[in-house]
Amino acid sequence: MKKMILLSALTLLTTAAAQTSLSGTVTVWSWDVAAKALQSTIPGFNKQYPNVKVEVVDLGNQNVYDRGLAGCAAGGADLPDVYSIENNEAEVFWARFPDCFTDLNTLGADKLVKNFPAFKWTELTANNKRYAMPWDSGPVVIFYRRDLYQQAGINPAAIRTWDDFLAAGKKLNTKFGNKVKIATIANGQDDEWFRMLANQNGCFYFNNAATQVTIAQPGCVTALSTIKKLNDAQVLATGDWGGQITGIKASKAASAIYGAWYEGTIRTNAPDQKGKWGVYLMPASKAGGPRAANLGGSALALPASSKNKAAAFAFMQYALGTAQGQVAMLKGEGLVPSLLSATKDPYVAQGQAYWGNQKVWQTILGTLGDVPQARGTQYFQDARQIMIVVQADYLKGKYKTAQEALNDAAKKISSATGLAVAK
Amino acid sequence: MTTTLPTPPRARRRFQAAPYLFVLPYLLIFASFWAWPIVSSFLLSFKDSRLGATAPWSVANWTRLAGDEFFRTALKNTFVILIIQVPTMLLMATGLAVALNSRMLRARGLFRFAFFAPLVVGTVAYSAVFRLLFNTDFGMVNRALGGLGLPPVDWLNQPGPAMTVIILALLWRWTGYNAIILLAGLQGIREELYEAASIDGATPWEQFWKITVPMLRPTLLFCLVLSLIGTLQLFTEPALITNSGPGNATMTLGTYLYQQGFRSFNFGYASTIAYTVAAIAAVVSLVQLRLFGRDA
């Protein structure tokens, strides 16, 4: 017992010493809502590390990616101490620039593995190195307008399959004379719908070993057929990111399907619609089928060129590795934690005023365990660009069946990446 | 009768280092920032840059390009713009230049500035404005169409209309610029030619075709070659207004190159595309000079 006390006293003493000894400035690159979220963890972090100054720079999503690649290509020049990276795009960095980022295991990250779900680590580790720490995730749900659904006589609890969703869309069309659509698809601009539905059905561009193109497999065929069915029934509007927000503000979209991080986007863009919104699980392909998927989600990496690694890692550990840090980001900007202990935080069980006092975080985080693994690989962008076009062509009627469309997509992805098509 | 001129005594040429030393700084910069990248990107086109420094030499990028449907789409889109937008623009610019040159026009300076002004506006800002103007639900263009009793057009989400928006944007931005260059050309034509033609009884229309157009040919050719090279490198408008979409409907060689180079970070393949674009630009410019540039 004495030994224990002595030991813990010693640990306390050494950590205390470490905390005051850390100093200097830590620069963080991030984007939009994510940058604001990181900002909100700084006061808590500074209570423990008063001598470390954290500067979050909001560069915008595209810019962070582009400047990161440029910096790595230039051998680590002009990179920050902490770098935000989307899971889907992460492998481009590890594959092309294996020495650009610090192996976090060397700083003790291997002890944190169990604190996060396995699917979050898939894209962050390569060549036995742990390149980044899991941040938020994007469990997919349907955000919906209670008032519009009610006026059209739709009960969201009864929407269990995509067919139910389609029928609800028709009700909205009839009620509002085609002026209000049940959801918006970025057809021709993005393939997010396909990725969400494919993931739900256990399929993705590539297999989890990143050795084969699996886009023509049955789960993906189901996903694309469903999208076509919804599109042909004319229950969807078309619009890109900005167009979707405009539609929400103008009450022309009765729901939105996205990763849960979209919560903050709706809440901050349409503050006047407070209380009118709610959340329900994404419909399944077949009755009783899985109702979970993941879209997006990010991580934080530590450039090897950082001059202040200890302080940078301390910040990452506080912001991402503690429930306080993660819940601060959830409260402020609706970033969904992937830290398992944060999902048990009392805040998660609270009703949210904007969402009509629904306990949305419980609903959303409840799906986290059902999310099938999917891997972006370093060829994510190639596959995505091809799929955007194939989806648009298929919806336009260029292919006879979803299988035919996806066979073509698989062939194209294979020729762009050099990976074989799965049989 | 032949006379042979006496050849001057040949000056003794000695090698002198000084001139070379003077141009050496320039040569070094030129070699490292111009010549080397050009050579390097050619070498890169024979490597799969995604595999890192150890990638073996191969012609895979070139064979991929030969069968690449996306590249063909980009090429086709670029040529559609080239064939529709460039002649329309030059026609409009010529008309505009003649009008701006007219003595009957008041406040010519103001008009010249007004037509040149689009070029001064930042590309990002003007792209954003075009996106707003052509927004399907809330854009001013569809409002105007509605006012005329016409149905709305889904401008940015349909292939044909999206291409139309790109062409309109390019016309808005570049017509004035070309008009100003042509105006300079017009002002170089001597007034006496027109006076003489009027005395001989030529109508203004005849004067335009027999004097203005032939005299303006070098300037027109200059504008044509510049527009052509500009179109082959076209990037800003399709990237910022339509994001190359919907699908690949407005993807140009420029945006495809960017996508491969900076989104997929596949510099090997991007270099292959770049070299192909450069070759196409050289061939098309040559053909133009041959066709229109006999004595220009």
TrEMBL record, chain B:
TM regions (residue ranges): 20-39, 79-101, 113-134, 162-186, 219-236, 267-287
Cellular localization per UniProt: Cell membrane
Gene3D superfamilies: MetI-like
Main location per the UniProt record: membrane
Single GO BP term: transmembrane transport
Domain ABC transmembrane type-1, first and last residues per copy: 75-288
Domain of life: Bacteria
Entry membrane topology: Multi-pass membrane protein
The keyword Transferase is assigned to this record: no
Stretches assigned to coiled coil: none
Protein name (record): Putative sugar ABC transporter, permease protein
Species of the source: Deinococcus gobiensis (strain DSM 21396 / JCM 16679 / CGMCC 1.7299 / I-0)
